[in-house]
Amino acid sequence: MRELGWFGILVVGVAGLARAEEIAERVVLYADGVAADYRVSAWSMRQEERTDAGGQGRFLWVNGDCQSQPWAGVRVIANRDDRALAIDAEWLAKGFLRFQMTVGYDQYGNPGSVEVQLRPEAQGIDFQALRSNRIDRGRGLDEDPGSWQTVLVPLSYWTELKSGAVVRGIALQNRGQADRPIGYNHIELIRFREIPDWLRQQDEERVAQPEVAWPEYAELPPSLRDEQSLPRVQNGVFVDGQGRRTFLLAPYCREDQRLDVWGTTDEARRAELPHHGLSDPDRHGWIYQELFTREHFCRLGFNVYSATMPAQVFWDAVGYERVRREEDPARLASTHQRIGAPFFVDTVCWPWTIGAPGTDREKSPLPPDSLTEGQHHWVPYRISGAGREIWLSIWRLYAERYRDAGVPVVGFELFNEPAYLGRSADHRAEFARWLEARYGSIAELNRVWNTDLADWTAAADVSADPKLQAIAGRSFDYDDYLSELFVELVRAGVAEVDRILPGTPTGVQTMGGYVLSPREAVFAHRFIRHQTLVLTPTGGGRWTAGASASRPPANRLASPLAAAPLENDLLLALAGNKMIFDNETYLQGQTRREIRNRLWSHVLCGLDGLTVFSWSKRGWSWWRGREEVQTEADKYPYSNLIPIARRTDGLRGILDFAEEIQEVAGQVLPKGWGPTPSVGLLYSWPQARRLVLDATTPDKTAAYYAALKYGHANLRVVPSDRAMEPDGLAGLKVLVLGGIRYLEPELAPVLESFINNGGVLVYGESIPAWDLHGQALPNMPVAGVFGEPDLTPSRCGDLELRRGVRTIEAVPGAQVLRRDSAERPVLVRRDLGRGRVYFQTADVVGYPLLELLEEVFQDIRPEPGWHLAAEVHLAERSEPAPNVLISRRSYADRHVLLVQNRDGYAKRLRLHLPGLGTGWQPYDGLARRKLPAAADGSVSLTLNEGDPAVVIWQRDERR
Predict the structure, then answer these.
(1) Closest Cα to residue 753, out of 815, 827, 835?
(2) Which segments within 537-621 are labelled E, that is strand?
(3) Which of 126, 582, 700, 752 could make a disulfide contact with 610, Cβ separation 3.0–4.6 Å?
(4) Sign for the pseudo-dihedral over CA of 271, 273, 279, 285
């Protein structure tokens, strides 16, 4: 065995490490400290070395202060060329990156997890996400900060890595912003003599799964099989043929599905396509090796076909000459006839097809003034002028095509993941006029921007990135200007589709997080007003950072707080009664129960349908061998027809979900639903936009939302622009501002009026003091004068305040309700008019934050549970249950409670609806049976790990 670098202490006993005799070569980069002639360097986060508890060795500890910037990372790299590793065929076939990692507590003391991406440091190699199946023999990271887990990633995962490449080290980067430390140790490159049996078994175990069974078509319930079950649109609502509510469930496919299944249009080669033993051809060939038929489609649980448009249609229309693509647009009508389901028309630019005439400028037949100049993401045509007409022509062309083919359409997507910062001359000239109309004088602009610009032309100079980014005011205002153009284009696009396909719901799918963070002209809260279908951002909507537990904690305060669907609740507030559709759902888990549970979480989030992304086996890789398929599965785990990426058993969970949701769709889906929310959480657009400019902007909105969500408050998210509308705060008793520092000036009098009319305002750790541009806001109704944070740790009853408090000097008439052990105010109250304001000073998150908020609610009104949508307790311990997500939907004749256990252990729950009264019979909507009710109307049921429940209270017919 050849060893390169200094090995330090040989750790053979650690779980997951191979026996020494299995390894042919090893290059050690870090073990008990960095190897000789290597160096460690971190970017955008703190780096240090620590010694393990036994004092036996050092390890690398990054982000120890929990203050990393987004996409921070660390690399271990050689100082000398002779320490680098030259890659050859043997290393590519049998080489691996191996290291150990652990994740520490965050700054509040909560366990959890992080996402990491990694790469060998060699020319031309991109970062790839670390998949959980490569951690600890496929078990993934756990929440125990005391455990080290082994990561083993094949070098073949990086398909850009070729024989002859020189690897100088390893880089490990956080995906997004990590809020907790990460430990790394024993970082090395190893090459096995032969791939060990245990590793082959890990990769191949139960892949073919012949025992997984599907019902025959005739055995399906009528809701999945009958012609009357097919979805249609009635007054903007998804219903079946009999007018009953239905849930849209689609696979993401090409119009010409041959490329999804076979990867080629060469008809003669179909029978030769190998399956490499990854699927059972006799039992499951209809899934993996055949085109959809009506029966196959229904047996999988689908009722809508989500089809990406073929590019050639647009290319032919504009005269763009290039090698013709394999996809055949002429198959549209026959595909619909074969499947018999309505279509969702998906204009997604993946795989970079439709936009080619705009990006291939040398061959483009389109006029130059229609093409985008400047940054953009899949928006190659300008959003005004000649470019605007290109967009309208695309939507018109494809809408007419589906109409003329007689294909029923239940949804139409205008844009997929757009972003736009075009900086062409016409934009700059128009921006100058826009600024003059907004500010009136250059002196006023300079005051707001804190600049000394000479004229409107200088102010509107966004000809280069540095000029745009150098002045915050210019950056905000240019984005604002472009967003108005984008809104107008969306409005026109919706109208054009509706003209050709009357009544077809139409919308825009943003990139993940773009609803929460308006940027690059994509201000969803503005153009949603013009959409007739609300599409979630990619992946269904961002959830807050959080973690589940694998075993019961000592009590609720000791439990980590699970992730909560903030972006989805924001969408609910913006969408009103419009349908909400997730056109890019990524399945999670490998078992049918895990995937069924994943899909149920979308229903709890208020969705009316989803597309499973992507119904493809990336067929072209199957001709190149089993190893290539494994690499495709690693890099593209959303390709659901690669059985390594998504096991056959997991796909069976889609049908399980379909059978359940369609049975209760009419009971749980209709919008809107009650009861009227009593607690609001303000979502500030100026705050969100400041966070885009500077990610270090203090903000606790997500933490307050998650605490209220898992505290089961009768909650609605209140976007700040909607709050300023007439009746924008109607029905609310309490409005919570979680760490907000920036707000619209026009909102200050609205909040004052809310308090004077009897409302309660809760400030969490901050008072809004500035508008978007940093100008001082009018005086806000407050409970005190607030100072700087005091980071001295203390206790407040049973709460540990690790991060200290925000200092406060209470104004006359204010009352301190709670102090910490250092006698600092933690909860302060002040009566104003007919209402009140509260200030919560402690820098806490999770269930400790919820306890302080619950003390505020109890102080407002002594009746227990007045602010709750439902009471959710552990039946055996009579205390509130941690990490149970709920969605209550009350109608005139029924009350529905959707419930999901977000932890990794079973819970026996007791559920009660406050104020329900007598005369109601509870039912288990999924088990389809009556539930016994206690004297107070509560019901008890057991939820296993990740499982949902649907409890329906209906009028007792015996009364």
Answers:
(1) 835
(2) 580-586, 609-613
(3) 582
(4) negative
